[in-house]
Amino acid sequence: MNIILNSGQSNTRQGDINLPASVDLTGKENLLWKIVNNNGVANFALPTTVLDMAPWIGASGDVAGNNVAAEVPRADGNCRVLLDGTCSPGDMLSLSPTNWGRLVKPAVSSGATNYWAIAEEVGVAGQRVLCRFVGPIAVTL
Q: Where are the domains of the chain?
């Protein structure tokens, strides 16, 4: 936010943020994280449903209670997120229902989900697939 143009946006900043981990996020970098309420304090955690709002990409994980860093990708740039399953360029990607924090090309009859990104390359399971954030876009498949 531009605080020079809008002084009501004081105490804001762009880029990565640091919050305590509410769960062990060690080794959970390049996964999508969400913010949760931990006794009135914002903490990072892994998503637990495909409908979670989890737009932050983990940058540095750690054990519960320690500060971790994450950033939100922007639509004017691409990013890499761990993939579950396979994808092709142009595929819409959503949160994996089995490997929390990963993206997946959802099955045609998978029900309600949120599209988070568009694949920009062919991807295989475990790859940090190149994608562009566009979501969340709620859909029912």
A: 15-71, 79-140
